């Protein structure tokens, strides 16, 4: 199994009652796991807790290595993961090539030996070879997201987290990038993908995780259900 999580998180609110989440789940070690659910249910919060970007209480392990427990907390930059945000978050002053080189440098700083991925292979998979000399301002939304995926992969992750990478794109750009996302299935790399769009779920999910916890009430608990997609 890839990730075992038993985490709790509480946010204060203006009216005094906390917004509470409990994430207790084991994720598979292969394929694309899609995390879905209504807005405010805790999808992105769950992903950020797995990445260590949001500090939760409890236990979290990856492939038998403890990322956090009562005494240990491995910071994000030492976890063998790649993370792609909704807006891609490329460095605007760097070319695509330089952004990828930054990701590759990150791999060398981790404690453990990272999984080896052929950089040229996924540059080809993501179709960005012709973009290497461009800066983000000269890329379309779909091109920026593909470059962000490439940078995440350049860090040689052992697991990839994608937080609604298509949500900021119009339908035309979504249609452009979807084949590239589907091609990620060729990589021997577990992926946790947050989204709420049914078409993305149907095309990408190997395993489906549903978070059911409304964001409007001042106190809510995220409940997970998992199942293999047909």
Structural commentary:
Strands 6-7-8-3-9-10 form a six-stranded mixed sheet, sandwiched between helices. It has a four-stranded antiparallel sheet with strand order 2-1-4-5, with helices on one face. The protein has one domain (about 5-230): P-loop containing nucleotide triphosphate hydrolases (Rossmann fold). It has helices at about 45-50, 95-110, 120-125, 140-155, 170-185, 200-205; strands at about 5-10, 20-25, 30-35, 55-60, 65-70, 80-85, 160-165, 190-195, 205-210, 225-230. The two termini are about 20 Å apart. It is of the alpha/beta class and about 230 residues long. α2 (about 95-110) packs parallel to α4 (about 140-155). Mean pLDDT is about 80; it is low at about 215-225. It is built from six helices and ten strands, in the order βββαβββαααβαβαββ.
Defining traits:
single chain; 230 residues; alpha/beta; Rossmann fold; 6 helices; 25% strand; globular
Short description:
The protein has 230 residues and is α/β, with parallel strands linked by helices. It has helices spanning 43-51, 96-108, 119-126, 141-154, 171-183, 198-204; strands at 3-11, 19-27, 32-36, 57-62, 65-68, 81-84, 159-163, 191-194, 207-212, 223-228.
- Specify the CATH architecture: 3-Layer(aba) Sandwich
Give me the CATH fold name: Rossmann fold
Note the total helix count: 6
Please bin the fraction of helical residues: 25-40%
The CATH top-level class label: Alpha Beta
Largest sheet entry: 6 strands, mixed
Number of domains: 1
């Amino acid at each position: 199994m890839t990730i075992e999580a038993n985490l709790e998180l509480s946010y204060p609110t203006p009216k005094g009652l906390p917004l509470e989440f409990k994430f207790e789940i084991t994720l598979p070690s292969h394929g694309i796991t899609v995390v879905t659910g209504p807005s405010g249910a805790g999808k992105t919060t769950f992903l950020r807790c797995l990445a260590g970007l949001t500090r939760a209480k409890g236990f979290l392990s990856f492939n038998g290595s403890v990322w956090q427990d009562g005494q240990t907390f491995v910071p994000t930059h030492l976890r063998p993961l790649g993370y792609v945000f909704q807006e891609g978050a490329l460095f605007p002053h760097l070319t695509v090539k330089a952004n990828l080189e930054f990701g590759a440098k990150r791999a060398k700083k981790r404690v453990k030996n990272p999984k080896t991925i052929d950089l040229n292979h996924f540059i080809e998979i993501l179709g960005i070879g012709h973009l290497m000399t461009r800066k983000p301002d000269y890329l379309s939304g779909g091109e920026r997201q593909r470059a962000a995926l490439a940078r995440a992969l350049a860090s040689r992750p052992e697991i990839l987290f994608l937080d609604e990478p298509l949500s900021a794109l119009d339908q035309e750009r979504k249609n452009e990038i979807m084949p590239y996302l589907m091609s990620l299935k060729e990589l021997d790399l577990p992926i946790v993908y947050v989204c709420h769009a049914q078409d993305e779920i149907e095309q990408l999910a190997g395993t489906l995780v549903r978070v059911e916890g409304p964001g409007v009430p001042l106190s809510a608990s995220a409940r997970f259900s998992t199942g293999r997609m047909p």
